[in-house]
Amino acid sequence: MLGIIGVVFAFIPMIGMPVAIIAGVLALLFGIIGIVKKHGGKAIASTILGIAAIVVAIIATTTIYGAAKSISDAASSLPAATSSTTAGSTAAGQKTVTMKATATGNGTVVWGLDTGTNTEQFSGTWTKEIQAAPGKMITVSVTGDYADGDSQKMTCEIDVDGVSKKTGEGSGAAGSASCSVFGV
């Protein structure tokens, strides 16, 4: 019975792992005692299920730890795309990118570098300034609020080091404006 409990709990991440290991060790211990005392099939089954519970729990724990570590490493290697700087304080080789969006009502802007995106809600005018390494792709998309009707207008613009590189506009309840600059 402990072997079955151990195998079942071995597949439950985090909480089930300690239960699976404890039940697996106990099943293995009682199974070995049963084999020594000649209790036959149940003792052998307990031993096998105890070993299986321990092995599955270890494999599952290792897999989950490896996946969590990979995600953590990937997240920590992403550049900080939300930093804002003042004029003249750019890092060597960095370009100052100013992203702008407008909407006659409420709007949603999706912006980002080629490494990821961010979404922000705004009303009227939105501006974000970041530092980007040369060769990066910058995108800005703005959509209006469906509730604001067909008369809504929206625009986007991307400036690099003070020079306008791309503009876009859209209108209507389902309208959108999109701007992309490749190789900043």
Question: What does this 3D model show about the protein?
Answer:
By secondary structure, this protein is α+β, with helices and mostly antiparallel strands. The chain has two domains: 2-76; 95-181, Lipoxygenase-1 (Sandwich). It has helices spanning 2-10, 16-36, 41-76; strands spanning 95-113, 116-132, 138-144, 153-160, 163-171, 176-181. Strands 1, 2, 3, 4, 5 and 6 form a six-stranded antiparallel beta sheet that branches. It is elongated, with a radius of gyration of 29 Å. The relative contact order is 0.12.
What's the gist of this structure?
This protein has three helices and six strands. The chain is an alpha+beta fold and 184 residues long.
For the sheet with most strands, the description reads: 6 strands, antiparallel
Number of domains: 2
Instruction: Note the total helix count.
Output: 3
Kindly state the percentage of residues in helix.
25-40%
Order of helices and strands: HHHEEEEEE
- Reported by name, the CATH topology of the largest domain is Lipoxygenase-1
Number of strands: 6
What is the level-2 CATH architecture name of the largest domain?
Sandwich
Q: What characteristic shape results from the CA principal axes?
A: elongated
End-to-end separation in angstroms reads: 64 Å
Which class best fits the helix and strand makeup?
alpha+beta
Radius of gyration: 29 Å
Strand content: 35-45%
Pick out the low-confidence regions. Answer: 80-89
The CATH class of the largest domain, by name, is Mainly Beta
What is the mean predicted local confidence, pLDDT?
82
